[in-house]
Protein 1
Amino acid sequence: MWRENFIFRGLKHLHEEGVLTILGLLWLILLLGGGAVYLFDRGSDGHSITNIFDAFWWAWVTMTTVGYGDFTPHSMSAKIAAAIMMFFSVALISFFTATISSIFVARKIREGRGLEKVNYHNHFIICGWNENAERMLEVLFQQSRGTWLQVVLVNELPIEKIQDLTQKFKSYELAFVRGDFTKEQILRNANVDKARAVFILPSQAAVDDEDADEKTTLTTYSIKAIAPKVKVYVYLRLRENRTNLRRAKADGIIVADEFSDFLSAVQLLKPGLPLFLTEVMRGTDQHLTLVPVPRQFVDKPYREVFFDFREQKGQTVLGIYSEEESMGVDQFLSAESGDYLDAFIARKLKESGRTLTEEVRTNLRINPPDDYILTERDQIIVLQ
């Protein structure tokens, strides 16, 4: 169905641009010109065009200015018909070439302005822009460590700034969609339903912190309505708005300056720890990463993978991270419309912001016990 819709939209666009009309006229001229030359030349002496197929071949070769010379009109009337056909065909082919060129040029200009739909798949989307966004892009590409990465920016930055970013990160797949990221159509232009994850930044154009967080919450609701399976991570300015984002089903929440009080206290008591965290987060020489549990360690105790990574790779395993789907409440409620108790429970859960369907639950185990049994769902947190 989607292929049929794609073809239909493509043909509609070509018709609106006049391409199909020009093609139709070219085929009409080919048929009329080839047919006229065949009819006028058929009874003349020494004619080379002996059948209608040769006439159409001659017309096609002549219209495209290839001119093999294998067939030529012989009679005067055939030559006049050929001259008329050549005049109109050259003019139409010029129009056809100019129209196709203008379509591609216009499309390229619209892409540069962020007005076209992005065709990325399994990509990352960054909604919003502030003073930390460019550094975030740098870290994102740096941490990817050469893996194939596609990123789409959704914001309302000036064209000059977008061009600077495109030039700066020209070695990477970076696209841009212009518009208000709270709008459904803008999110669809970023191909959000095919995205790997979305990160929402507070916009620098927001009136205040509360306004920025409201836009973040609204965008989270919109994304989850369009693509429930896509991961949505958000950056909040106000800690008290965390509950709203949990109701919106945000998969990860970062609050501004959430760890500043902790780091300040630790700096006094244990000065080395903030320095350690800074170096790890900077990711220059050593950095944190997630790797799947190697196949040979599935169903094996944690201590085996810990010592193997340490002895064989010189890396330290710090913990285990996993995601698992929990059963939804709707699996326990009756599907019969007459069960008013189940309907009442479902309504109250929705009002409280709880979902009825399956949810993805994350588990983090820092320094797990030696006898913890690893599974296929687990990922290893490694300092390398």
Protein 2
Amino acid sequence: MFGRFSRDLGIDLGTANTLAYVRGRGIVINEPSVVAIDQETKKIFAVGNKAKDMVGRTPGNIVAIRPLKDGVIADFDVTERLLRDFITKATKRSGWFRPRVVVAVPSGVTEVEKRAVIDATLHAGAKDARVIEEPMAAAIGAGMPVQDPTGNMIVDIGGGTTEVAVISLGGIVSHRSVRIAGDEMDDGIVQHIRRGYNLLIGERTAEDIKKGVGTACVPEQETVMDVRGRDLVTGLPKTVEVTSKEIREALAEPVAAIVDAVKVTLERTPPELAADIMDRGIVMAGGGSLLSGLDVLLAEETGMPVHLAEDPLTAVVMGTGIALEHFELLKRIMLGPKRQP
């Protein structure tokens, strides 16, 4: 009876966005990992999309918080409230029937960070919480044959971390997790605009610039974009024109770190599996993989074919969803069952 009424969840608890997959219904939540909270009363004003709209636009006593940093929990209490809100919204149930939850975490997290995710999920209303490594979830969600005795390479570039892994026979053979991803790209753009134009912009504007004119390699045609911000000299609003060339220079450092992580992982890969990857190619997932020209640059640097997952933004959460559908089969690739006492 309890199985019939339960709404098991797969959650991609990301630094930038949180996605939730409900068993039998598909993806039901895709919202920013942001909570707007009153610092004085600790009352929550908004979660997700509504909270993100408040970033940089709130009065002094209300702050919009991103409770996850570099893929791990930075503020436990706020993360618990975020999860509770999303679990309630996704399941549409009262406290009678609590879901089993699978949460994707970076492969480089410590045992303490893993435990924090599990505890926050249990406190948020789950009856059973497990964690699965993000590159494994991304590979499953991208449709890669992770159970086969062949080499599969996944590069998952999220908001806080970049996960690179070689998977064979349902296990991770070699991997590298670096805490450089979309957020560092945005920060590089903010610093460049500040140094080059004495102009202060917010993270939302930086993200828009990255999507609009950001490139990882030289495009066929350079583009320009108008950017609005606050002049640090006069304190007044100001508009400047930036080119794709200068944004490419601003992104050079984080992009180089991501390419280096892929190279290091390939160096640690057994030769038989490396030969498989040469045939099959590298698969990219995560929002950061959508940076224009990044797949071309990675192919040039590694000499291997590079493909984007069918839907890079949802690959991880789809992987957690498939893990739910085949809970027993995939139990061994999850990181230890944890049940609320």
